[in-house]
Write a structure and sequence with these properties.
Order of helices and strands: HHH
Number of helices: 3
Strand content: under 5%
Helix content: over 70%
Shape: flat
Number of domains: 2
Number of strands: 0
Amino acid sequence: MSSHLDPTAPIKGKPTKQLERQLKRETKTQIVSYFLMIAITSMAFISIATDAIPSGFAIPFILLLAGIQVIFQLYVFMHMGEKKTSWVNIMIWSGMLIAALTVGALMFLIGIVKY
């Protein structure tokens, strides 16, 4: 049996205790992660609206919070944390690495970052 269940598929008969525990655990994980993402989003809005962080650190701070949210969404809601999706993980992280290197190189070439 796979570790992820299709929530739209009807359960025939009475679900087993293991299935009930698995569904409860997955539901709890998604609800907790949802509220963590709401908290991260609120933290970003409040920190900028109240000038709680210095203006020079605002963009890196927002990008850090956005990165944390992307990882949460990928691993919790897109089920990338499952063992059977290892090749998908490799492809996605490779693509993100190539995109980050490309953006960094273009910023350096254009002159946004001067080192």
